[in-house]
Task: inverse folding
């Protein structure tokens, strides 16, 4: 019997590639009938990039992503607070990538099909399962019609079915839905001028009003495709839960809050006004769980630990989940022991990242500076010292598992022949 993976997102596909790498049979089922390269830009941190390189995907990543050179923080007045190199520029053995989420998903999908054949089946949404003692009988349905589909036997079920996971709802029936932190996000892409190093990720403002931007593609004429996010805190009674998760955003709802942000490194109002399209999302996560694995069933990725998109760790943590789970399945076989070992290795560490992101992760430096200098500053050294800034950045890297020295020194998660 095979490992059955519910969900063909970044985590599920990485797990498929990893299981193929270690010689474990698997199948992937996906709820949607047709996979499309959905989403906007994300960043992959070096600890996740290392895993994709060890899957032999370095050249493919370079064709669709930009190797991020630095992260830079700015005040609401556009003044520099802190910047630091990223990826190999920071001493890691692996780069950081700014990349389109949908293009990354299809890179993984195409690599999986080339290596393992037709192992992804679409139009089958996870509905339920039953453990017979010797195997799992997993039930699927057509989400569009509600029609029950044939059940599938499996050795284990890995639910990589996203933030609104059916498996999580079955395992934790009283939990409720996603948790909103009070922030709405408007996201878009704009073709515009290169800024800062040309490979920089920049953040300006505070938690209540923040603009994040980074290039995800460089054009032949030197211009770049800018992925951007505008965050605004909203009142507690804002109807975030009635928003369509693919709802098109309106400039009038947020652009006026950034109207004066004409900075010497980037004209933010121009970037917003010249976007190809704008989408509106609530910033939500899920509460940390006391267990991911229950017998022959486990959660991974957003189903296990959906987190705020702060610190560039959502997709990266899903990739690490996949690699550790594949390692434990190779060690213990496709059964309860492997899923328990994966849970023990990953859950507590990732729960810490979820909570750190709720505390605004490394971005909390923006609020710290704004609290000390609400009217702006001439020189950041008059507000906060370089050592304190570096300590904030280093603390988050340690929590999220990509401290440069520790990452460079540790062995591979999946060692050849181990």
Result:
């Amino acid at each position: 019997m095979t490992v059955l993976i519910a969900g063909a997102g970044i985590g599920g596909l990485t797990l498929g590639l990893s299981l193929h790498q270690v010689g474990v049979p698997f199948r992937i089922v996906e709820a949607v009938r047709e996979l499309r390269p959905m989403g906007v830009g994300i960043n992959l941190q070096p600890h996740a990039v290392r895993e994709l390189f060890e899957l032999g995907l370095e050249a493919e990543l370079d064709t669709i992503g930009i190797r991020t050179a630095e992260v830079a923080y700015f005040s609401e007045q556009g003044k520099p607070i802190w910047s630091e190199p990223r990826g190999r520029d920071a001493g890691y053995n692996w780069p950081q990538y700014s990349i389109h989420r949908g293009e990354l998903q299809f890179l993984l999908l195409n690599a999986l099909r080339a290596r393992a054949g037709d192992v992804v089946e679409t139009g089958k949404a996870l509905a339920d399962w039953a453990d017979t003692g010797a195997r799992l009988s997993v039930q699927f349905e057509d989400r569009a019609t509600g029609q029950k589909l044939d059940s599938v036997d499996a050795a284990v079920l890995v639910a990589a079915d996203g933030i609104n996971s059916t498996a999580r709802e079955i395992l934790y029936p009283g939990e409720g839905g996603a948790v909103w932190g009070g922030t709405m996000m408007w996201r878009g892409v704009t073709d515009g001028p290169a800024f800062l190093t040309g490979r920089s990720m920049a953040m300006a403002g505070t938690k209540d009003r923040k603009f994040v931007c980074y290039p995800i593609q460089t054009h032949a004429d030197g211009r770049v495709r800018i992925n951007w996010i505008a965050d605004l805190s909203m009142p507690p009674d804002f109807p975030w839960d009635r928003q369509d998760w693919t709802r098109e955003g309106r400039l009038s709802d947020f652009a006026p809050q950034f109207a004066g942000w004409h900075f010497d490194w980037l004209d933010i109002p121009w970037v917003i006004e010249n976007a190809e399209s704008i989408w509106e999302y609530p910033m939500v996560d899920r509460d940390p769980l006391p267990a991911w694995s229950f017998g022959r069933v486990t959660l991974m990725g957003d189903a296990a630990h959906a987190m705020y998109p702060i610190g560039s760790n959502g997709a990266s943590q899903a990739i690490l989940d996949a690699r550790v789970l594949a390692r434990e399945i190779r060690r213990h076989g496709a059964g309860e022991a492997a899923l328990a070992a994966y849970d023990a290795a990953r859950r507590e560490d990732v729960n810490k990242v979820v909570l750190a992101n709720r505390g605004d992760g490394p971005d909390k430096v923006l609020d710290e500076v704004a609290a000390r200098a609400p009217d702006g500053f001439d020189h950041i050294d008059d507000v906060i010292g370089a050592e304190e800034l570096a300590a904030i950045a280093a603390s988050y890297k340690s929590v999220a598992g990509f401290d440069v020295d520790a990452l460079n020194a540790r062995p591979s998660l999946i060692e050849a022949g181990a």
Remarks:
- The chain has a mean pLDDT of 94.
- The longest strand covers residues 179-192.
